[in-house]
Amino acid sequence: MSDLSVYLKSTPYFDFDEASVRAFADAVVDSSAIDPVEIATALYLAVRDDIRYNPYSFDKDAKSMSASWVLEHKSTYCVPKAVLLGAVARYKRIPSRLGLADVRNHVASPQFVEMLGTNVFAMHGYIELFLEGRWVKATPAFNAELCEIMGVVPLEFNGREDSIFHEFTDDGRKHMEYLKDYGTFDDVPYDFFVQSIKEAYPHMDAFIEEYGVGKSLEQDMAALKS
Length: 226
Prior knowledge:
Layout: H1 19-28, H2 36-50, E1 52-53, H3 67-73, E2 75-76, H4 78-91, E3 96-105, H5 110-116, E4 120-131, E5 134-138, H6 144-150, E6 176-185, H7 190-200, H8 204-212, H9 217-225
Parallel strand pairs: 1-2
Antiparallel strand pairs: 3-4, 3-6, 4-5
Helix pairs in contact: 1-4, 2-4, 3-4, 6-9
């Protein structure tokens, strides 16, 4: 087995040396917990549901992709949520690494698809955790309340099987499909990430500034049902 120490380090993004990140993890898993799978699944649920998913919160400031920033703001998109899960896992001595992929989302809100100009989400983030001798994928993006509004069963994670995204909604409609996987990284590849977003959505900064401030995906989806 290769050296996993790089996947256990605190970094400016996986910043579990910050007190807020440690406090969050310790509130979820106390010091008596010893089973890495149980620790990982508890942390997954906490990140999934305590942090609201909101793609309108995208910010090119590098700090906004750190675990401590996510805990301060409590609302963000898939990549920082994955980083938060990776950071608290590292703090609990579970190796983690970030995965990035392009995906097609068939049930995104019309407002957000209009903003992007496509239903392809570039640079979607997930996390891989090293459990029981192998890497397992986890995606803590959509919080349970948002899933209820969208008609999607919250994505579960058992620590032993990959959990990457719903293929179908609960009424059988296609939801998400992976188009291109960029692999995994021991830290956020910030320059690569931002350049890829710029190339995929050259107009997005202006659109968010004009239309996206203060918006959320939950508001979009709730409006569709009203």
